[in-house]
Amino acid sequence: MSSDFWIILTACLMSAACGLLGCFLILRKMALIGDAISHAVLPGIAIAFLLSGTRDSLAMMIGATALGLLAVFLIQWLQNSGIQSDASIGIIFTALFAIGVIIISLNARNIDLDLDCVLFGEIAYVQWDTWTANGIDMGPRSVWMLGSALLIILLLLALFYKQFKISAFDPAMAVACGIPVMLFHYLLMGMVSMTSVASFESVGAILVVGMLIIPASTAYLLTDRLGRMLMYSVLTGVVSSIIGYYTAYILNASIAGSIVTVAGILFGIAFVFSPKHGVLIRRLRQRRSQGTAIAE
């Protein structure tokens, strides 16, 4: 298959996984948690590589998920101790990210990890990093990682959709219904950690934040129903990936950067023209209400 196919497929899988999780982060007003986790998992990746001696997907995913959950726990602990939410997020993710940078820099000879790749990613090279099983080329490693992450996310959301939904909209009601809110909180954070490390080689730690937040925010402006929001978020991410890739091809620019830029443009369009929450619609309603008041 052509390199174009693998690049677009990788981008679409990443966008779908991030889009689904981003909806719950937006609804729970935890968008910056995605930023924190995507940076905080770096020491987990480095430690997993040192212990395993390989870039094995499972080892790195386990290490990243563990550090992501640790970051969430530490943030929650600081908040319970009286530290403001934004301050606790900034403290934890910068501290853990710095630890990851130190680990990599001190073991540069033993760790085959490029910080630029971790930060920014390079989706154009995904077709060269393949997974071989029993001498058979199974295709790009990123496709398998992101496909597995997306499959796990879909499975967990299908099994516990009502629990995630109630916990996102009304945690107090969820507790009253006997739902273990903290369990689903950490389960969501674990999925974000897993998706972050699966996305590193395609978009990097920084740009994955954009795909976690922007498509979900766009979908939030378009509907008030969670099911449709999830669908619109995934659709926005996939459309951004396809248009962003061909835009980057024409302009000879960064593919990952173009994808997030297109997502930002789609958000801007929704922000202005959304049927329910768009700026233009709100102004028209205000003028109509003013006209009606004057006529009366």
UniProtKB/TrEMBL annotation:
GO terms for biological process: response to zinc ion; transmembrane transport. It is a multi-pass membrane protein. It is found in: Cell membrane. Signal peptide: none annotated. The chain crosses the membrane at residues 6-27, 32-51, 57-75, 87-106, 143-161, 173-197, 203-222, 229-249, 255-273. One of its GO terms (cellular component) is ATP-binding cassette (ABC) transporter complex. SUPFAM superfamilies: ABC transporter involved in vitamin B12 uptake, BtuC. Keywords: Cell membrane, Membrane, Transmembrane, Transmembrane helix, Transport. It holds the Pfam family ABC-3. PANTHER family: ABC-TRANSPORTER METAL-BINDING PROTEIN, METAL TRANSPORT SYSTEM MEMBRANE PROTEIN CT_070-RELATED. Belongs to the ABC-3 integral membrane protein family. This is Zinc transport system membrane protein TroD.
